[in-house]
Amino acid sequence: MLIQEELSVQEKLEILSDAAKYDVACTSSGVDRKGKAGALGNTTAAGICHSFSADGRCISLLKILFTNQCIYDCKYCINRCSNDVVRTAFTPEEVCRLTIQFYRRNYIEGLFLSSGVLHSADYTMDLIYQTLKKLREEYHFHGYIHVKAIPGADPVLIEKTGFLADRMSINLELPTADGLKKLAPGKSRSKILTPMKQIQKGIAANRYELMEYEKAPSFVPAGQSTQMIVGATGENDFQMMMVAEALYQNYDLKRVFYSAFVPVNQDSSLPALPGGPPLLREHRLYQADWLMRFYGFQAGELLSEDRPNFNVLLDPKCDWALRHLELFPVEVNKADYYTLLRVPGMGVKSAKRIIAARRNGPLDFDALKKIGVVLKRALYFITCSGRMMYPVKIEEDYISSHLVGEEQRKVWEIGSAGTFRQLSLFDDMNVPALADLGGVRL
Amino acid sequence: MKTVYLCENSVEGILSGVYAAWTSRKGHENVKLELMGDGDTMELFCQYEEVPVNARNADKVVQAIRGKISEEAYIAVYKAALSKERDRGDKIYRFLIYGFHFGAKIVHMLQVKEVFDIFQMCRNIDNETHLLTGFVRFVEMEGDLLVSRIGPKNDVLVLLAPHFMDRLSGESWVIYDENRRKAVLHPAFRPWFLVDLISTEWEERMKKASDEDEYEALFQRFRKSVSIKERTNPVCQRNHMPLRYRAYMPEFSHGLKDS
Fold this sequence. Notes:
The complex is a heterodimer of chains A (442) and B (259). Chain A has 442 residues and is α/β, with parallel strands linked by helices.
């Protein structure tokens, strides 16, 4: 391992942000905190994106590793110890200065600090703790901090760090124990789940303390998140969703992130993905995750043992609706909020607006459009004052063939991201071949 | 004959116009609000009347909206008055006709066109404000002064200022709206205020400061190194961050695209 000590901050930043880029926990959301006189920064519950990188992903945090030196040899990871890459580490002082100066210029919403495991889990966790302490207490930084808990680190250290951070996460990386054994031999499921449980208990205990003493410092106020890699091992979508659901229910996680596997290492145990990263599959998992968190869906409603993978051609909500046509059409002027939420083309905002607007008189299709309902999708599933928008057959084949036409355009956009050319009347009238959507199973 | 009330392009100006039109008792269909200096062709068979800004009249309208409709409606009207829509004055007037009739529930009645118009303007201005809370870029000048230049479609400065006031309370900063030639000034630890700026002399200084700022170069490097080559997706990037914002962001200063 080549350890470089004498690098400039610029070189370190390049190496240590490049090494952190596969971590998708990029949001700065979850907690609203007002600014404080004399301190720098506040946080916004909705989160703020400060820029977007060339891959279209939001940049809201200074996402860096403390060090890319690591004692583990996880096959999928660019920082695995057997890789021959330049190794370096920041000092706590350097991290603080970068954060403060980037924040003052409004480049970032806060800091995301992860790390390879240097020497030992405790040693690394302590370095992270020292950095956060300095940032909060010496630099009076009041903005958002998301930090990684290092699996296997001393619970006391994790707790002390938790009181300084807004969000903590531990990456599950691979959803099943088998996958973990195969690709991350140094880690085990219990090593990851134990601190996850500890953070959950910390949050719960803190909630209780806050009720008793108003001034108690808050522990990980923006909650806990994790990340799973999609497509590195053989898990199907159903397994992924069940794991995510269990994490939301049993570990109170705020977010589960999904990261399409990008092969950065050559290794015989890693899958070859000739079509590039499984971006469409990642997209479907995010859509389904959204349905679980905001729309009251359960994983078992969306998928099952017999139908373990999402439909490539339809988003999970349309797919669900088509399999439950007996519940449709829904009368927009009468249906309750949760029923409206299950209509394809309607979201949380539009459902709320419908409820508020219809108190003052019936809504027609024109009004729904203004409210923000995507009628292209919704029209097959709703009536306004007893009438459908067009004469529509409530029949699976009929509706799906119409919906797929619209969805396919989007699928094509996701599947062929980055290939841009002028549309041509002759080439583009043909339906794109599904075989081109690498890594996606029907 | 129709009367067109020409009001000054400001929240107070529009509300003064509303007052003048309403109290003229000519009937709602016989009056219209327009903004001064729009350069529109004048309508035939119309009487044009200029309405000077009158703080007392504007305040009367504000009190009426707050008292007889709701605080929420007042916020909507205020925001709509900052909108980029050229006929915002008249749209506000039409909204208020319904508002004074229906009272507080008016803000939810999106099925009414006049209400929807205001809703849409507010949505547009809220979205732009939110995007700018992220896309504003400060350059550090001498004396730790942070300066930013923006070119928004809507007049968002007063909506943007409280966010940065809370966030950067201990810093001195300026946000300059290039399209309207006005700026928000915030001296450290003091309240912010609005000023009209005609002089562009400091734009040169800002450029120089930007060239010398080492953190700007660091951020450019950072932005580049965090994107994943295999996932390149400029359409997605453009959807989230329209090109018009990039002209003001140093990380795109070498052309609007990522190289």
